[in-house]
Design goal:
Length: 377
């Protein structure tokens, strides 16, 4: 097959390109090489046999050029980072996806499969249970008033006791921020236009993807990047809230295997899939993993009593639907950190951008100070 990968120079895209080439496919990349993700231009790891088109997915002409002769599309080009430039999320993620289907329909392109990158973020806070009331809830984002008083955990609206997180399957979404809203609209566009115009489509709700080639320069995203860079420079990372928030980490190799699985399975057509690691880790546990891999056990993270407005408290994806296609996660967060560390060591002229990133988030009121005298239940 001849396959187009948008965002093919990026983290998930580039690894998927490598896998497609190994399977004998012909690959074309459409990428804007936009800063800050590609701060130093085109990365050297793009294979020479790949055709590269520099263009923006918001540009219809770029799609018209990139889709010529294509059999399948991986649409990974996206805008993220959770910063409050709201409109750009929808211009890139939603409008860009609409243009893919617009051009395909106008030109009657015989696309055999489209795979769209979505995100676990569409669940917001995900499923929680009240152990006292025996009731399931899907709570909304925690308010600034609650967070300012360091009330980190969700509470039952009936008995006011703390809720416990649970695995979240694909059946119910609750997007709570600009990134999540744009990714969910992207899903709706892709699945509905795909079904209406007979373009087999699958959407992948990735958890926190980790591994080499993850950009150093995002202000917000990338726990592996943030913690690894901090310890790489012998500097303690900041842990927001109390460090007990739960995250779902998945290795890039497992993500690529999932991407290939849905390309090759008709059972994936017009479906959405969680792509996660299948195990819950607290931020404290992840920090301990990074310190162990880097040999920095004597160091300790900073807990400054700050929070990132819009952060999820706990989230863990149920990946049983994807497992039914024969896929399963094989790697651990320790594998991911070790692979990222080895990649870091191979880089040159790495800038310590973390202070800049943290200050930028504070300046834009993303990172805020909590009153630790409050009730931290």
């Amino acid at each position: 097959m001849k396959i187009l990968v948008t965002g093919g120079a990026g983290f998930i895209g580039s690894h998927t390109v490598d896998a497609l080439l190994l399977k004998g496919h012909e690959v074309r990349i459409l990428d804007s090489f936009e800063k800050p993700v590609h701060l130093k231009g085109r990365p050297s790891y793009i294979p020479k046999e790949v055709e590269v088109i520099e263009g923006d997915v918001r540009d219809k002409a770029a799609w018209e050029e990139a889709l010529v002769g294509i059999d399948a599309v991986y649409h990974f080009a996206a805008y993220q980072d959770y910063l409050p430039d709201f409109s750009k999320f929808f211009h890139v993620n939603s409008v860009g996806t609409s243009l893919l289907y617009e051009v395909a329909v106008e030109r009657k392109l015989p696309l055999q499969k489209v795979v769209v990158a979505s995100s676990q973020a569409v669940y917001g806070e995900g499923r929680h249970n009240c152990p006292a009331c025996k009731t399931a809830y899907y709570p909304d984002i925690r308010s600034s008033d609650v967070m300012d008083r360091a009330q980190w955990n969700h509470r039952c609206p009936t008995c006011k006791g703390p809720l416990e997180f649970s695995q979240t399957d694909e059946s119910r979404i609750n997007p709570q921020n600009q990134y999540a809203l744009s990714k969910y609209t992207q899903e709706l566009i892709a699945i509905n236009f795909g079904r209406r115009y007979n373009i087999p489509t699958a959407a992948m709700r990735y958890s926190i993807v980790q591994g080499p080639r993850q950009s150093f320069y995002n202000a917000y995203s990338g726990a592996c990047r943030i913690f690894c860079l901090r310890y790489f420079f012998d500097r303690s990372p900041a842990i927001y809230e109390d460090g007990n928030q739960v995250r779902d980490f998945v290795n890039i190799k497992d993500v690529v295997a999932a991407n290939i699985a849905v390309l090759e399975s008709d059972k994936a057509d017009y479906e959405v899939f969680n792509v996660g690691g299948g195990h819950a880790y607290t931020v404290f546990e992840f920090d301990a993993t990074v310190r162990k891999v880097f040999g920095k056990e004597a160091m300790a993270p900073r807990i400054p009593g700050e929070y990132r407005f819009g952060d999820t408290r706990h989230i863990l994806s149920d990946v049983s639907k994807l497992k039914a296609l024969g896929w399963k996660p094989e790697s651990t967060p320790e594998d991911s950190v070790r692979e990222y560390m080895e990649w870091l060591k191979s880089q040159v002229d790495i800038e310590d951008v973390l202070d800049y990133a943290e200050q930028k988030m504070k300046d834009m009121d993303v990172v805020r100070k909590a009153d630790l005298k409050g009730d931290t239940l």
